[in-house]
């Protein structure tokens, strides 16, 4: 492990994505493609070099957010001179001074599904250069690996290929393992005399053979090495990753109903026995322990323990619930609920609610005064009648009873009844006066 460097090419523009966002920042299961590539690389090496170019500042900002403690240490970045040295070889040249290991694995940030073991296997081949390759029925767009007498001869790009070469089905994956010293000798020999006027890394293959080096190819799983160049491929890659995520958690004991309809981000996790019904969306680094999430619920960056949620509930970020029942059409945000029942139609934001408390249907925490957000604190065993509005900041003591339909603006003391509605009047004979006799 210690003598491998992984270089990730991420300087390209990605025009086929038709987006103002750089291609490698597009997300799959809640994390950017670049994040997934780096995460995989870190499993193999502590010398990861990321090549930036297009929108490098925006990408650097992203990397500093995602990998705050590893940037500049395990993860180094280098800037490609895309004007004078465009192309994948130009990208590699930019990063060579950061490579401090004997073997260099090169991969692209638009292949988010690659696994560490597949990448590592390229470096395990007994040769100087190993090209990761796969066969495709429709190889259009990929560089083709030309084999002669059972040996790799060269890689030719689609744009430069002859008709015979275009018929080759063996594709260059874009992932390779090189002996570092050899690649350093080859890079200066690469020119840009091709259809794209770019410096192709793929030209290093023929040059390596010419220099007498041993070059081989290894066949790889084509789905994992799929290059994401457009939004159709982005969706396909996400489907594939989702299937793996769901399988992983089902193996760990999670029950899923209609799993193909369930979305789970890569960062989410489950503990104990959980049950997830159909059409549930779980985003961010949510943690779900011994809980049931019913159909149609959306959970974002929340912690759920010994609870049941939904159907059709929405837990927005920083909801933290324990021993709690959340029913249909209840929305939580930045809310800590411990031993609470909120069965129907409520908005509970920026609040803390303690055990034994029952939140009636239609309860709202009015947390926003138009300028600032304020907190609602509700103690133990509080009975909140239906259609109560808490105007925050507010503090409701233990054992308070709140009458239905109250707009609560003042704190309560323990044991009180809080009632704010107007007294009911019953006016005899009024119906007939208005509508006549019926
Ligand atoms: C490349 C390969 C092709 C292979 C395919 C696999 C070359 C010349 N071609 O083609 O043989 O079949 O990948 O998916 O290498 N990049 C830079 N700087 C650049 C250009 C690209 O860093 O100047 C990066 C991109 O950000 C991307 C990767 O290199 O992550 C591949 O670039 P892309 O333009 O997608 O190459 P392909 O045309 O797909
Ligand atoms: Ca590509």
Automatic annotation (TrEMBL):
Spans annotated as N-acetyltransferase: 253-438
Positions of Mg(2+) binding: 110, 229
EC number: 2.7.7.23, 2.3.1.157
Entry's cofactor comment: Binds 1 Mg(2+) ion per subunit.
Binding-site list for UDP-N-acetyl-alpha-D-glucosamine: 9-12, 23, 87-88, 143, 157, 172, 229, 316, 333, 347, 358
Main localization of the protein described in the UniProt heading: cytoplasm
Main EC class the enzyme belongs to: transferase
Residue ranges of domain MobA-like NTP transferase in the record: 7-135
UniProt keyword Cell membrane present: no
Annotated stretches, region: Linker: 232-252
Subunit structure, as described in the record: Homotrimer.
PANTHER family membership: BIFUNCTIONAL PROTEIN GLMU, NUCLEOTIDYL TRANSFERASE
HAMAP family: GlmU
The protein, known as: Bifunctional protein GlmU
Biological source species: Campylobacter magnus
